[in-house]
């Protein structure tokens, strides 16, 4: 697969949307630049007695509409351009769902699968210390992303709180419930993918009952989304992890497959043959109604876009589709619910968690679910209206809405001095 720089993708998307916004070139330039970037190299004592130096990043793309917000990723491929692109997508995402956050992102270049829990904790605590001047409930609020989870958020919260001398719940979201986490946050992104995909099926008159769904990635986003599709009566026919996927034309037993992954770290065991093994490349091209890429960037490109058979693509992952692929998919009539709308359930419930932390109160599950559904269905309708009015795909429509709101906020605040 050709390597694509996610930052090039993010910048090209801005150019495409900017044509419809008729903006001052200076303001377009501002939207393309990140506000602050911190690169840190820091040592960690490993369990074999050696010292290993890691490189980490925290990037704030834009804080015009509110504090920076965005996950922290642990992955060997994490690099500055990827973090910049992910931070930029966070800015547009928060604006699309109209919550008062800016966009940020962070990551550490590491292989978390080869590290012990103790090493992960040490690395997380030292990284938190290194970026502590940038983060905080009023400045920039991290959350989980690829290969980070509520436990990692708990270590960040604890380290930051020790540094301050008192407990600061609002410094991260996606925390465990016992430490100021919110009900519904763990499920929020996957649930949001389901809600927005369901809106797309309603628009296209595709019954969700019996719809064939293919999910790439079975982590927080993919795993939860698959369960929501399953519960709604759709048929999850394939799901994958970083190694490979499992496919069953008649439909998988989703909970059995996910349970197998949890217990044995693989999707198929020789005893319980849920279906046939397929590669991630084959999975993307399967004949289905809804394709849900929920792993990494650059999965749908100009090479495989002509062979995609899905009617709807609901992007759980950030940046899974390149602009060249977008053009091909649009021409072929494939309806894409873009990342900055489809996976915005995560940042939305993160916002609820932050609000609850600041106000020191707790909302119940029904309140959270009802508010999340309302925000996502309203945002879907707004994006769809723009897409029909401007005769553009859903991604460009979402960018027109998101970038438009950020630029409007910039104009209202004015350029200092
Ligand atoms: P996760 O760590 O929980 O799961 C990642 C999944 O991707 C795993 O199942 C892993 O096996 C799979 N994977 C890794 N490399 C792969 C590869 N090369 N090919 C196929 N599958 C691969 O991470 P997550 O939180 O589910 O995040 C997945 C995507 O969703 C990312 O793009 C992330 O930025 C995006 N996202 C996450 C959230 C959130 O709240 N966690 C919110 C919005 C967007």
Task: Provide structural commentary.
Helices cover 46% and strands 17% of the residues. The protein is an alpha/beta fold. The strands form 2 sheets. The chain has a 7-stranded mixed beta sheet, with helices on both faces. A 5-stranded mixed beta sheet has the order 1-2-4-3-5. Helix 1 (6-21) runs parallel beside helix 3 (80-96). It starts with 5 loop residues before the first helix and ends with a helix. It binds nicotinamide-adenine-dinucleotide. Nicotinamide-adenine-dinucleotide is lined by residues 144-147, 189, 216-222, 240-242, 280, 294-296, 316-318, 343, 346.
What are the main properties of this structure?
alpha/beta, seven-stranded mixed β-sheet, five-stranded mixed β-sheet, 14 helices, 17% strand, binds nicotinamide-adenine-dinucleotide
